[in-house]
Amino acid sequence: MKYFSFMAAALLSFTVACNSGTEQASTTTAEPSAANAAGQSAVQDDDSQKDVVKVAIGSKDHTTLVAALKAAEYVDVLSNAGPFTVFAPTNAAFDLLPKGTLDDLVKPENKNTLRDILEYHVYVGVLKDGLMGDDMTYGMANGQSVTIGNKDGKMTVNGANIIATVPASNGIIYVVDAVLLPPKK
């Protein structure tokens, strides 16, 4: 009889504990706030080294690239830990595209095409310039490859000149003087 009383008390305690846990869990569940839903790019950190997106945002020469990243909803992706190597075209590089190309690409119905082009500028990993030899190819985030040129200390990617190197907290940025367009599939 003592055994039965002990088991009944244990079962009752277990049932009460489970029910209170369920009630507590259901009352503490809440919708994420808008700030939490914004993603990695919304994290405010003025002390650490800037990620590739924050470096681009801080550059007067990359406003077109930043606008393209926003139109493609790609800002949070490149704000994550990485590491990434980004070949970042300047505003002047975008100006070399045929007239109307950029305006067409940033339309919502062309978001996938814009993402494909932007992903053709991103390598997942860090490519150090000292290790990139002439005629080496690297697979980019969109699944296609670019070719590095490295002759007499002058580096290129698919023929575009690499004009600057900028370190970031989640990778490295190579500033380029042309927009890299992926080969047609």
UniProtKB/TrEMBL annotation:
Pfam families: Fasciclin. This is Fasciclin domain-containing protein. One of its GO terms (cellular component) is extracellular space. The lineage of its organism: Bacteria, Pseudomonadati, Bacteroidota, Chitinophagia, Chitinophagales. Residues 49-180 form the FAS1 domain. SMART domains: FAS1. The keyword Nuclease does not apply. Keywords: Signal. Residues 1-25 form the signal peptide.
